[in-house]
Amino acid sequence: MATYRLLYASIEGNTQSFINKLQAVAEEKGDTIDAKVVGDETDYEAEHQPFVAIVPTYLTGGTGTGPAVVEIFTNALADYIDFEDNVTLIKGVVGSGNRNFNDQYILTAKRYAKKYQVPVIGDYELRGTSYDAEKIYQSITETLGE
User: Fold this and answer.
1) Regarding beta strands 3-8 and 51-56, do their DSSP bridges make them parallel or antiparallel, or are they unpaired?
2) Full-prediction pTM beyond 0.90?
3) Tell me, what's the pLDDT at 70?
4) What is the largest CA-CA distance in the chain?
5) DSSP readout, 63-111?
């Protein structure tokens, strides 16, 4: 039985819904997902175990992926990861988004991966499917070790 740490941002409930799916998959396998939602009201604290960040894509400005496109709503999660030594414990990123936005699909996750020099270990659209949860759960277990 293993426990996997996830930090995530959920704005409209899509990411929370996906976390619930991941927790159900983990429970089926006899494991636990220890997930913490991070938003503007979250008190920063030092993390003590490796984690994966799950980020939705919310952007404003521009029409593509250039510098005019600005992240919105997930900045608190980035600040939390930057707090104390938390940055040394991030091992991967999972992104969500809407494929209708083409090049901007999971752009936030790609930017987190670049900033923290970790891989994007999975992606899903909107609330994700049960299949997405199974696939991403496997990526999480491989990334964080079993």
Assistant:
1) parallel
2) yes
3) 66
4) 46
5) SSSSTT-EE-S-HHHHHHHHSTTGGGGEEEEEEEE-GGGGGGTTHHHHH
